[in-house]
Write a structure and sequence with these properties.
PEBP_euk, 3-stranded antiparallel β-sheet, globular, 3 helices, mainly beta, 177 residues, Protein TWIN SISTER of FT, 6-stranded mixed β-sheet, Phosphatidylethanolamine-binding Protein
Length: 177
């Protein structure tokens, strides 16, 4: 896919959160049984519960494990993201082809509740070289996905996706269905 049309580039996920990377796994996210597409708009009521997550890659014959990070790079507001990146969820040891519920939830899912502006909620997937102990950070605000990946020698991401969200009844020019 051309980088000019890549939704991760258009949505500034590449640049703000991660560097450009070659996708080598597929990330499928479903909220309430409805598949989320990259860059879609969802309301807080639609994302109140954690999504169903499926990660496949095929490189390791189904024996790979993955780490999933969910962050809000626009916290507390897109015009003043002083808490960038806010960590919403961290799951490790997700077996390839299985859901996140088969992994180790290091940081529990916190549902998005943006109070100002349209926020991007970003899912980043890393392939784990080995199963390893990954610890919860001491706080959720000012998490750094790049530093996290480097700290645990996870390498470049293998998949990513995001959705846009604003407070229920919020105005901002876009309506979510």
């Amino acid at each position: 896919m051309s980088t000019s049309r890549d939704p991760l580039v258009v949505g500034n996920v590449v640049g703000d959160i991660v560097d450009s990377f070659p996708a080598s796994a597929q990330l499928r996210l479903l909220y309430g049984g409805r598949e989320m597409t990259c860059g879609s708009g969802l309301r807080p009521s639609q994302v109140a519960s954690e999504p169903t997550v499926h990660i496949t890659g095929g490189r390791d014959g189904g024996r790979a494990f993955y780490t999933l990070v969910m962050v809000d790079p626009d916290s507390p507001s897109p015009s003043n993201p002083s808490k960038r990146e806010y960590l919403h969820w961290l799951v490790t040891d997700i077996p390839e082809g299985a859901g996140a519920n088969h992994g180790n939830e290091v940081v529990a899912y916190e549902s998005p509740r943006p109070s100002a502006g349209i926020h991007r909620f970003v899912f980043i997937v890393f392939r784990q070289v080995v199963r390893q102990a990954i610890y919860a950070p001491g706080w959720r605000a000012n998490f750094n996905t790049r530093d996290f990946g480097a700290c645990y020698s996870l390498g470049a991401p293998v998949a990513a996706s995001y959705f846009n969200c604003q407070r229920e009844g919020g105005c901002g020019g876009r309506r979510y269905r």
